[in-house]
Design goal:
Elements lengths: L1 H36 E5 L5 E5 L7 H15 L23 E6 L2 E11 L6 E3 L12 E3 L4 E4 L13 E3 L4 E5 L12 E3 L4 E4 L12 E3 L4 E2 L14 E3 L21 E3 L6 E3 L12 E3 L4 E4 L13 E3 L4 E6 L1 H4 L6 E3 L4 E5 L1 H4 L7 E3 L14 H8 L17 H7 L102
């Protein structure tokens, strides 16, 4: 009986063992078949490429490009213009917006050298797999609906020459990946939602064009801005504070600089007069105080100066009004109270000036005397309102500014007011003259309300100032990409600035 039971047990055990062995063999066989059809290659970048082994690619570069672009295609949520509709098959060089050229280190191999999906209204995000496109020289995706952040894998794009992700929905701090792109010359991240501080290392890079406007940056402008070799810098429409560092005078190659519509303060630095090659200078819509630096009269190549909507005072100098190439000089909505003779009637008829909303006697469209008097009579000590390494809060600024008294004058002055925000002085013995004492606060955070808010429309505007409205213009056709080992693709001139409001 025991023998029969043992026999039955061994039979059942053998059946179970054989069945398990069969299942294991089936799994192994299936895996072997799968491996035959899927080529697997682990890359040093941390990606594992799974591609049908039956697909034959001309070279490994195009194989990686195929994998990266197909992974990107998977996260495209909307493509209303059908820009990536033909992203099928192994011929990635035929994909819309993808451009191939001979590899810079191997003229016998074709590779993906550029991507241009501008103005596609595409919705999605960038995938880390794009870091596999290590031969990219140009990456243009402006005027779409890409969101999220710039992947860290973009640090692998070591020969990238142009990065244009403008007019999208990217977020987060400044994309520090661009600081690790050694060949980058053209950086355009405007019209996004980047925020926070601007890294000083940006101005140590060998960039030719820096477009950061229309984001949410809120730091001071780094003191080393003068180290930059850029010809165009646009920081407009952010929330930069503090004032313009004096090192800007070192930027002798600077052609256009736009600081408009921020929270910058202090006096305009005299070093702006050292920008001998500048053609466009825009510091409008900030909180600058004091007078126009005399150095502005040395800007022999400048074509447009815009200083409107600040708290500048004093005299408009004829040295500016007689600059040989100046076509547009806008100083409206300030507190200037005098024009030198050649500014009263410009000697060059093509010069367009806007002097509205100032305190100029016998001129139309000026501020009321009530608004003008407290500011025009205010004495400014530029040393006390100069650039600081850190931006004080509003409360700290109010506490620190009153002890910085202006240069003493013969007339007696009342003691410092304990609450600077109040325009009304405390009761003190009246000075010799009945005229009310000057307001001790060196600078108010904001100018008084303006009755005429819209900026002027000039006729005719100078040709160089015609603003291309966003979105950012597409680059020229990318028919023949040449990738020299040292400089990469020769990128087009940066787009002209947008006036007013970038």
């Amino acid at each position: 009986m025991k023998a029969i039971c043992c026999l039955l047990f061994l039979s059942v055990f053998s059946i179970i063992s054989l069945r398990s062995l069969s299942l294991s063999l089936n799994k192994a066989y299936t895996a072997a078949i799968t491996r035959r059809h899927l080529g697997q290659a682990k890359l040093t970048d941390g990606f594992e490429i799974n591609i049908d082994a039956r697909l034959n690619f001309p070279n490994p570069r195009l194989k990686k490009a195929y994998y990266a672009l197909q992974e990107w295609k998977k996260v495209i949520l909307s493509d209303p213009e059908k820009m990536i509709k033909n992203w099928e098959g192994i011929d990635v060089c035929s994909y819309n917006g993808v451009f191939c050229a001979k590899a810079p280190d191997d003229p016998n191999s074709m590779t993906v050298a550029g991507i241009d999906l501008n103005h596609g209204d595409i919705a999605g995000h960038l995938v880390p797999h794009l870091g596999l496109l290590t031969d990219l020289s140009i990456f243009h995706i402006n005027s779409n609906r890409f969101c999220g952040i710039i992947p860290d894998s973009f640090t692998k794009l070591t020969i990238l020459h142009e990065l244009d992700v403008s007019n999208n929905r990217f977020v987060g701090p400044f994309p520090n990946v661009v600081l690790k792109m050694p060949k980058l010359k053209y950086l355009d991240i405007r019209y996004n939602n980047f925020e926070g501080e601007l890294p000083p290392q940006l101005f140590d890079k060998d960039l030719d064009a820096i477009f950061l406007n229309n984001n949410r940056f809120s730091s001071v402008i780094p003191e080393n801005i003068g180290n930059s070799k850029a010809s165009v810098i646009v920081l407009a429409n952010n929330d930069f504070k503090g004032c313009i560092p004096k090192s800007i005078g070192q930027m002798t190659k600077l052609d256009e600089v736009i600081f408009a519509d921020n929270e910058l303060s202090g006096c305009l630095p005299d070093e702006l007069g050292l920008l001998e090659n500048i053609t466009i200078l825009d510091v409008s819509e900030n909180n600058f105080v004091g007078t126009i630096p005399e150095g502005f009269g040395k800007l022999k190549g400048v074509e447009m100066i815009d200083i409107r909507k600040n708290e500048l005072t004093g005299t408009v100098l004829e040295g500016i009004c007689t600059l040989p190439k100046l076509l547009n000089f806008t100083f409206s909505d300030n507190y200037f109270n005098q024009l030198e003779p050649k500014c009263e009637k410009p000697v060059r008829p093509e010069l367009v000036m806007d002097y509205r909303e100032n305190c100029l006697p016998k001129k139309p469209d000026q501020k009321s005397e009530k608004k003008c008097e407290p500011v025009v009579n205010r004495e400014i000590d530029c040393e006390s309102v100069g650039c600081k390494s850190q931006v004080d809060s509003d409360e700290e600024s109010k506490k620190k500014k009153p002890p910085k008294k202006p240069t003493p004058v013969p007339k007696p002055k009342p003691p410092p007011v304990p609450t600077p925000a109040k325009p009304k002085p405390p009761p003190v013995p009246a000075p010799a003259k009945p005229k009310p004492p000057p307001v001790p606060t060196p600078a108010k955070p904001k100018p008084p309300p303006v009755q005429s808010p819209p900026p002027p429309v000039f006729s005719p505007p100078p040709p160089t100032q015609s603003p291309p409205p966003p979105p950012v213009p597409s680059p020229p056709p990318f028919d023949d990409i040449v990738l020299p080992p040292e400089v990469g693709y020769s990128y087009p001139s940066p787009p002209p600035p947008i006036f007013p409001g970038y």
